[in-house]
Amino acid sequence: MTHDPIPMIQSIIDHPEMSDGAPPFTRRMGFDKYMRFTRVAVGEFDLEWTVEQELCHVDGFVQGGITVVVADVAQSFAFWSTSTTPEAYSTTDFHTRYLRPIRAGKVVRVESRVNNRSKRTAAIESRFMDSETGKLLAIVTGGWVVVERNIG
Questions:
Q1: Is 92 strand, coil or helix?
Q2: 12 - beta bridge partners?
Q3: Domain parsing of the chain, residue ranges
Q4: Mean pLDDT, residues 92-97 taken together
Q5: Considering the entire predicted model, what is its pTM?
Q6: Other CB atoms within 10 Å distance of the CB of residue 110
Q7: Mean pLDDT of the chain
Q8: Which protein family is it in (predicted)?
Q9: Residue 40 — pLDDT band, cuts 50, 70, 90?
């Protein structure tokens, strides 16, 4: 039997109100209200993120670590989309390059792509772009590895 995660991910995109399996931290950080998953293909995952003031400094610029958390969410779906068998995975590292400030109230398009996938590892890149201007705001690269993990 072939394992195809794309229909499962597409179902989450099409019916977010029915996906109660999201990690608890995403609800705690309000991502269930401010993130909208928009597209999946093998090795690719896109979302839109409306930056809320609660995750920003007093001047309205997003706290940098939040960008990495958003990339982590997007990259996990990109990794999952490449799975040919049920598997658990985790990050090994992230590298973030901030190019322009990400401001409260902006809608940011996040496009994640698996650049390389082996049996046990993956290198994934997320590009954060202003949805109005198309300007590149940040690039986050992540290393991922298949792990033994009870995700049940």
A1: strand
A2: none
A3: 6-147
A4: 98
A5: 0.87
A6: 26
A7: 88
A8: Belongs to the thioesterase PaaI family.
A9: very high
Question: What is the pLDDT at residue 2?
Answer: 64
Q: So what's the pLDDT on residue 21?
A: 55
Contact 117, 82 (CB under 8 A): yes
List CB contacts of 124: < 8 A, sequence separation 6 or more. 75, 78, 79, 112, 113, 114, 115, 141, 142, 144
Phi then psi for residue 130, to 5 deg, are -65, 125
Closest CA relative to residue 100, chosen from 132, 73, 74, 69: 132
Find out whether 36 and 62 touch, Cβ atoms under 8 Å: no
**For domain 6-147, is the CATH number 3.40.50.1820?**
no
Alpha carbon 88 to chain centroid, angstroms:
16
Compute the distance between CA of residue 126 and CA of residue 141 in angstroms, rounded to an integer: 6
81 contacts 136 by C-beta, under 8 angstroms = no
End-to-end CA distance of the chain: give it in Å, rounded: 21
- Indicate the range of 26-30, 36-40, 42-46 predicted with least confidence: 26-30
